[in-house]
What we know:
The chain is mostly helical. The chain has 2 helices and no strands. The termini are far apart.
Amino acid sequence: MADNKKEQERAELHRTIWNMANDLRGSVDGWDFKQYVLGMLFYRYISENITAYVNVGEWEAGNTEF
Length: 66
């Protein structure tokens, strides 16, 4: 019974997320929107990793207040 409720909640969440994405993208083609979102996620991944890399380098160089 608990598994069924969990699956229903998951399905409702999935529908809600898709509806929000559809409202957000408006009349933009789904493929174009997907490329935009994936590009933004990739940019965020790279920027967070470069920030961590620079912070570690500064820490190792003795600049603990960077």
